[in-house]
Design goal:
Elements (H helix, E strand, L loop, with lengths): L13 H9 L7 H18 L1 H16 L8 H38 L12 H4 L1 H8 L2 H27 L1 H5 L6 H41 L4 H12 L2 H23 L4 E5 L3 E6 L9 E7 L1 H12 L4 E3 L1 H10 L11 H17 L1
Parallel strand pairs: 1-4
Antiparallel strand pairs: 1-2, 2-3
Helix pairs in contact: 2-4, 2-9, 3-4, 3-9, 7-9, 11-12
Length: 352
């Protein structure tokens, strides 16, 4: 029979999902990010057209103006700044909008996640044999085919728009500069909007595909799942948390038992031990609560609150704390000392 324990049939645990996320394995579509950038450009270009057209005209005028006769690096840099500056400044808001759209689209897919692990050097990344295998993998061929298909679709859309507006394109030379720029701006915005809408569809499909691929890659074998659950169950962090909760629960139970105690024996500076004795049900007195330092203070406060007698007896309190566990009966060696205290307490109660 085939060994099914080594087949990846189990969904990844939350712990493994966190681990692979730290390593940079997340579902993300670059096409969806590209679609966001295209949409931002399609919206931003018409809004910025006035300043952009003026900037392009200034750039053209400055470029055609006489330049410095002496050719030097300083003169060349000044000429480029004067020539390209107006158009560059006009383009800045649109570029910032496109960058913001790209960042927002990426964050919407993977959330805010910073990890240095993907940048850490790994041998399989610099190993030429592994690199060659990745280059010839089925996924690489699929990505290449997808890229070629997208370029083909993009070229087809651009050609359709150009061919349907060919006459207007040829007539641009007869139009005033601002009118020509307005037509070009409208044409580019329309083209970008068509491309953006198509890329949104491609991006959504690609994101669904990438998500499915990641889910498939991080699936676990049954052995991995058992090992993961075992490590999670007995991890140091979980053990420490469980121990902390057990201690808190034990303290709470002890505090609840103090009010039922017959007496609290104390070393006023350090220990407090609460004792309970029912001669009809118990063979010997039982320690129902004990504590040291702050816990001892809490036991004393609880005893005062419920009017449980407090008897200072440092040697007995120290011995009870060190030798008798909560819920256990006192040893015979302490019968005499405890009996004397309980006799005083019971006589005091009977007088009331």
């Amino acid at each position: 029979m085939p060994d099914t324990s080594q087949e990846r049939t189990e969904q990844a645990t939350p712990r493994k999902r966190q681990r692979v996320r730290r390593e940079g394995t997340v579902a993300k579509s670059t096409d969806l990010t590209t679609a966001g950038v295209f949409l931002a450009l399609a919206v931003g270009l018409p809004l910025a057209f006035g300043g952009l057209a003026y900037g392009i005209l200034q750039t053209m005028q400055n470029g055609l103006a006489p330049s410095a006769t002496t050719l030097s690096l300083h003169a060349l840099s000044e000429h480029l700044a004067k020539t390209m500056g107006p158009a560059g400044i006009a383009l800045l808001p649109v570029l910032f909008l496109a960058m913001g759209a790209g960042v927002a689209t990426s964050l919407a897919q993977v959330g805010f996640h910073l990890s240095a692990e993907p940048l850490a050097p790994k041998f399989n990344r610099i190993n030429p044999i592994e690199g060659f295998k990745r280059l010839l993998s089925r996924r690489s061929f699929f990505e290449l085919a997808k890229t070629l298909a997208k370029l083909g679709i993009l070229g087809w859309i651009a050609w359709k728009d150009l061919s349907s507006n060919w006459d207007e394109l040829l007539a641009l030379a007869t139009l005033p500069p601002l009118n020509a720029l307005a037509w070009v701006g409208g044409f580019l915005s329309s083209l970008l909007l068509k491309v953006a809408m198509l890329w949104v569809v491609i991006g959504i499909l690609d994101y669904a595909f990438q998500r499915r691929q990641v889910e498939k890659e991080i699936m676990m074998t049954r052995d991995e799942l058992k090992r993961e659950l075992k490590e999670t169950e007995f991890s140091p962090e979980l053990r420490a948390e469980l121990a902390r909760r057990r201690r808190a629960l034990a303290r709470a139970r002890q505090m609840a038992s103090v009010k039922k105690a017959d007496v609290v024996v104390t070393n006023p500076l350090e220990y407090a031990v609460a004792l309970k004795y029912d001669e009809k049900k118990m063979a010997a007195p039982v320690v129902v609560a004990k504590g040291r330092h702050r816990m001892a203070d809490r036991i004393r406060d609880e005893a005062k609150k419920h009017r449980v007698p407090i008897v200072p007896n440092p040697p007995l309190a120290r011995t009870l704390y060190k030798e008798v566990e909560v819920g256990s009966m006192i040893p015979p060696s302490l019968y005499q000392a405890v009996a004397e205290i309980l006799a005083v307490v019971f006589r005091s109660k009977s007088r009331r």
